[in-house]
Amino acid sequence: MAKQHVYFFGDGHAEGNGRMKNLLGGKGANLAEMTSIGLPVPAGFTLTTEVCTEYYANDRNYPAGLTEEVQANLARVEQLMGKKFGDASNPLLVSVRSGARASMPGMMDTVLNLGLNDTTVQGVIAQSGDERFAYDSYRRFIQMYSNVVMGMSGEDLEDILHDMKEKKGVKEDTDLNAADLKQLVSLFKNKVKAELGKEFPDDPKKQLWGAISAVFSSWMNARAITYRRLNNIPAEWGTAVNVQSMVFGNMGDDCATGVAFTRDPSTGENYFYGEYLVNAQGEDVVAGIRTPQPINKAKHKPGDLPAMEDVLPECYAQLAKIRDILEKHYRDMQDIEFTIEKHKLYMLQTRNGKRTAKAAVRIAVDMVKEGLISENEAVLRVAPEQLDQLLHPSLDPAAEKIVVAKGLPASPGAASGAIIFTADEAEAEAKLNRKVILVRVETSPEDIHGMHAAQGILTARGGMTSHAAVVARGMGKCCVAGCGDIKVDYRNETITTVKGDVFKKGEIITLDGSTGEVMRGEVPTVQPELSGEFGELMVWADNIRTMKVRTNADTPNDAQVARDFGAEGIGLCRTEHMFFEGDRIMAVREMILAEDVEGRKKALEKILPMQKGDFLGLFRVMKGLPVTIRLLDPPLHEFLPHTDKEIDALSKDIGVPAATLKAKVEALHEFNPMLGHRGCRLAITYPEIYDMQVQAIMEAACELNKNEGYAIIPEIMIPLVSEVRELAVLRANAIKVADAVIARYGVKVEYLIGTMIELPRAALTADVIAAEAEFFSFGTNDLTQTTYGLSRDDAGKFLPFYVEKDLFPNDPFVAIDQEGVGLLVKMGCEKGRAGRPGIKLGICGEHGGEPSSVIFCHQIGLDYVSCSPFRVPIARLAAAHAVLLEK
Questions:
Q1: Catalytic residue among 5, 467, 847, 881, which?
Q2: For residue 216, what are the contacts with CB-CB under 8 A and spacing of at least 6?
């Protein structure tokens, strides 16, 4: 039996269902599901994602028999709708839309009103009795088809439309009459012929296959590729194509179109939230061409445009019922599209709605309380990476701010940056680590790369469901949309407010996406406070996860931030960061410049009390929790000045000739310091350095135990071990120093000595190394560098190209390379446990806060992950996901 490539839906019957997203895409599966549960869905059919895969595998040729399948399903639609595709007197018009298994709003192409030509437009006039509507649909079709299918710039025809409105002295498209629109159709077709050298196609069947091919081709357009890369959507998934009979929201004042969310996608409030336009088609709402109106009046304010609840009350009541049906059926917040034709409501789409992190948390917790989902489901509903939005500063309410304009609060958060007017410039500036605000009249899918690069987005047009708003919320970017208080001038690169203030490119502004305010200059921020629903969700996550989450912290302040975020200890304290403090760098330099052991010890005696003070502060914050302290790791030359000016200044400060300093700097110079005289190799050469640090650690632990009753168990970590004999020597030294301190204080303090596994050889010989180590901490930053032979500091120049070209699935410094680096970590775990049963195993590289890496760490049996303070909640939630995904 031949494989089915086309699935029909209509009149309460569907060949597919909501569980078939991999095959039918999200849109096709949900259209089938809505049809099956009795909702009013215009009839149509879906070409599967497998067709897309075969299309690309066979040099953009379709599988055998597809033409006949499409024709057969088109005939079923014709029969159901009582119209015929391409018929002169009673024509069926269709839409052609994309639909991947993962939602990709606005990233691929759509064609509406397909099937129109100079003959069928007369049939539409006969059907509707409305010549204006027919020619409005026809000109829209030419605009979309010439752009999407024929590759013509959309601005070419938009300019003709703009000129027509100016000539007629009107502002809105709806103010043009039938004769104007008929003339536009002729002007548009002439422009297509002039620009492309060929006629606009008038054969409906050729139009249909042109549109189907264009939608499949749009899977590989630049904006779709960018979106997939940003959201980790595999290219091999492909998209489905949905062909659906048209219903019209632009036939008059008893027609409308709209977009709605079953709950507020910004805050998560259980409030039916959406926008609509009377006498319009779907793209008018999302493109911001006209200012949309609210669907309900629950939050109506004086001066607001009339709500659908008042204008079309019967249709609104039906839509509100459907909202409840969809939420109960899908048990999640839905993003829906609808059209009203002659007072009849049709559902065009439903999908799980994109939402901010704040909304995701509130919706998940509320739905548990409403009995819709379980606590486990609620935990899975919030993507760990989303929490990043909640863990960063917002505007300081006490700060002075000069508000210059106000728009819609489209995506919460706060952002400051320099004004930039194009997506390309935003991306270029971001690569130079400059913070920018992308300012557009309205955004389009082509702006996605700039939106991702910018700190925030400001648009002059568009509503809360505009492209800018939806995409910004999905990215977690601050966005102020529909800011009618500003005029954006691309030519002169300025923004002018209604008050007459002019802002030029490069000037700093601040956006508050929670209020819609635009402010002059940079406004200070405050740290976030996490409580309420977030706290409830994290309690559920903590009850589920089995892996501990620690933090990487070098100061009591960082440690306290991490504790407040739920850290269960310190997995990495980098002691070298303490050496750079202003009150001790001179002593460190004195130690480096000393000519003998006694000279180094004398300098180290000055550093000892400072180091001890550091550890006292960390131990106090982490009372009763483990603290892993890495002994000095970087090469000594990092602590010395390098320019002549810096060397001369230091020479005067310490009374050492500049020539002597230069000679020392040159002597310490290494061609490849990452693989040079650093880590444990320093201590083999200069054991007195680690002796001082171990003494400081143990004195701090003993004092707190003796004087304040703290039960401190320090974990002393020796870095960059590649050979067990290195560790054996340094472990023996550390034990000698630690035990002497304990004896001197007369207390009992336990301590552990372990190592960082950050070299391939250490992972490969972990069973032998485990004999001398009570714990392993996998340093995946350096392990990635040494496994790949990549310098993290230099690879940024070409790694993005590798990811873009799919040579690497991800940047290996962001998400752990599970096949290579991950295999070494897994091997190190297995060998470590074989060499020392019960050995404590953790990870302290940046991967410890990246969700997919955290899940991998759980899968291979690590005891804990450690990450930066602001990523602790992300790791906690990811660790819970890891457990639930195994079920």
A1: 467
A2: 51, 52, 55, 60, 239, 241
Kindly state the tokens that stand for 336: 């829906």
3-state secondary structure at position 631: coil
Q: How far apart are CA 156 and CA 158, in angstroms?
A: 6
Task: Go through 804-843 and write b for each residue having 16 or more CB atoms within 10 A of its CB, e for each that does not.
Answer: eeeebebbbbebbbbeebbebbbbbbebbbebbeebbbbb
- Hey, what's the torsion of the CAs at 73, 74, 77, 79, to 10 degrees? -100
What are the tens digits of pLDDT across the range 433-487? 999 999 999 887 678 889 989 999 999 987 765 778 777 876 778 899 889 899 9
Inter-residue contact 692 to 731 (CB < 8 Å): no
Instruction: Tell me if 881 sits within 8 A of 381, measured CB to CB.
Output: no
CA distance 765 to 772: 12
Count CB-CB contacts under 10 A for residue 708: 12
Name the helix (H) or strand (E) containing 369.
helix 357-369
User: What SS3 class is residue 443?
Assistant: coil
- The 3-state DSSP class for residue 752 equals strand
- Rounded to an integer, the average pLDDT of 530-547 is 92
Does this model's pTM top 0.85? Answer: no
Residue 21 host element (H or E): helix 21-36
CB neighbour burial string for 351-376, b if at least 16 within 10 angstroms, e if fewer = bebbbbbbbbbbbbbbbbeeebbebb
Residue 103, CA distances (Å) to 360, 740, 754 in order: 16, 63, 46
Contacts of 195 (CB under 8 A, 6+ apart): 152, 156
Q: Residue 237 corresponds to which tokens in the numbers above?
A: 């998934």
Cα 254 to chain center, whole Å?
Answer: 40
Cα–Cα distance for residue pair 866/845, rounded to 1 Å: 7
What's the rounded Cα separation, in Å, for the pair 750 and 438? 55
- Among residues 483, 844, 857, 867, which one is catalytic? 844
- Find, among 348, 290, 283, 326, the residue nearest to 99 by Cα: 348
Q: Is the dihedral angle over the CA atoms 441, 447, 450, 452 positive or is it negative?
A: positive
Q: Given a cut of 90, is residue 809 above it in pLDDT?
A: no
Q: Is 467 a catalytic residue?
A: yes
Measured between alpha carbons, how far is residue 758 from residues 543, 784, 842 in Å? Answer: 32, 8, 12
844 in active site? yes
Q: What is the CA radius of gyration of the chain?
A: 32
How are strands ordered across the β-sheet holding 486-489? 486-489, 494-497, 502-504
Least Cα distance to 700 among 784, 804, 629, 602 occurs for 629
Query: Per residue in 816-851, pLDDT tens?
Result: 999 999 999 999 999 999 999 999 999 998 799 999
How far is it, in rounded angstroms, from Cα 618 to Cα 557? 9
Q: Where are the alpha helices (DSSP H) in 308-356?
A: 308-311, 313-330
